[in-house]
């Protein structure tokens, strides 16, 4: 049985490598796609266009404006009136507008505080909020405030707040999810499209062994992609630190690949062609991705969605992976994440196995 199983797995792997288009898609997804997500998605304020109207006639406004520089802000642009400034924001010429009133300099020197009007284009909500925080910190340095509390901030796990670290890792975990489903489903559906399904049914091999071998071959491909993405993109391009055990991460990825394969078996059972595979895969996986915490922290979701996220195996995979990479959680502290991935994965794989088994 082991020899037959190995032969079936080798057959599927050879078939995969003969499909140059599929190999190219997998390599792209585990390399360039993750790199683009890490470099292209920026949540920090950067290169923001600023305009201002200065009626104060003093030097304090120029001192504040001099603090707005690259890479966060472009050189501030003067405007003759508030109307012109508002029109520039409406036309998307600038994102931030500052208005220094005629009493700004006088109030700041006499009272230690003054009114500064600020206009923000909040269509890009994240960047505008970050810009607002930067501006508040700059202005507060010139205010005579008697603060009884001194704040000392210590950033943990990602000291420089590198967005690319989080985005690249989150994208890789999402890629594993989608490819695990699509590749597993494609193995069976291609048999239907190529007309070899009936021939496969007539082979004197236990159908359960065929299902297991076909799905296991795709798990191996996913794990190989994880190794490539981790070494080339995460470590090579982004220099992401790993404070825990890399072998714990690979083991967690192996179990999660079986979870995705289980969903792929279900998709294969209800799909007649590759177009339906793509449609059903996206329909099933996108809610799981959105509920996983890959894009929005779990604690920031609606309470109903927080409860629903408990059935997303990707949630446990993401939290476990981040704990390994950033927090350095030892293997014996990853029990809840392994339990979530293996528990939900076993249910999903068993259900998908039973579903595709009825087709044989």
UniProtKB/TrEMBL annotation:
Pfam families for the chain: ABC2_membrane_3 (PF12698)
Protein name in the entry: Transport permease protein
Species whose genome carries this gene: Hydrogenimonas cancrithermarum
Source superkingdom: Bacteria
Chain ranges passing through the membrane: 20-38, 164-189, 209-234, 246-270, 277-298, 334-353
Membrane-protein topology: Multi-pass membrane protein
PROSITE patterns: ABC_TM2 (PS51012)
Location of this chain's protein in the cell: Cell membrane
Protein family (similarity comment): Belongs to the ABC-2 integral membrane protein family.
Location of the ABC transmembrane type-2 domain: 132-359
InterPro entries according to UniProt: ABC-2_transporter_component, ABC2_TM, ABC2_TM_bact-type, ABC_2_transport
Chief location bin: membrane
Keywords tagged on the record: Cell membrane, Membrane, Transmembrane, Transmembrane helix, Transport
